[in-house]
Write a structure and sequence with these properties.
The protein has 3 helices and 8 strands. By secondary structure, the protein is of the alpha+beta class.
Length: 147
């Protein structure tokens, strides 16, 4: 059994943003030499998710509106009350309670099978990094395990 790991660094432009990272992952799997196993794709952030879905522009608009409806940017979030909040604060802290709540609906990671050297995605499935907050550099860990 082998394990290969890569850290992808992705510069986002805005939140929300659906960034198709499928080709980066497929390329890494091809170079890994692993023919049968699993690929784990994991965001290292609580305001950026990894999700499998379809890369169709109107659907991405729909998904963006859906997230905004369930956790609006201008909603009232205790996390954004910097007079009361004292935990996990850093310089330049932004009001991003909405992006944490949106993340609850998505996920930090996806795990997908590799069979005969090919990542097993359905006809329209793509892998996205979903930026939920604001423009910045994000990191995604891709780990493939198998033989």
């Amino acid at each position: 059994m082998q394990t290969k790991t890569k850290k992808l660094k992705i510069k986002t432009k805005k939140g929300p943003q659906f960034i198709d990272i499928t080709e980066d992952i497929v390329d890494f799997i091809n170079k890994s030499g692993i023919k049968d196993g699993l690929a784990a794709i994991c965001s290292q952030h609580t305001t950026a998710a990894v999700k499998v879905n379809e890369n169709e522009p109107l659907l991405i608009e729909d998904m963006t509106k859906f997230l905004e409806k369930l956790a609006p940017v201008n909603g009232a979030y205790n996390h954004n009350d910097f007079k009361r909040r004292t935990v996990n604060m850093c310089a330049g802290e932004c009001a991003n309670g909405h992006s944490h709540c949106q993340h609850l609906l998505l996920s930090t990671s996806e795990t997908l099978p590799i069979i005969a050297g090919k990542l097993q995605l359905g006809a329209w499935q793509r892998i996205f990094l979903v930026e939920l907050d604001h423009a910045r550099e994000r990191q995604v860990i891709v780990q493939v395990i198998g033989e």
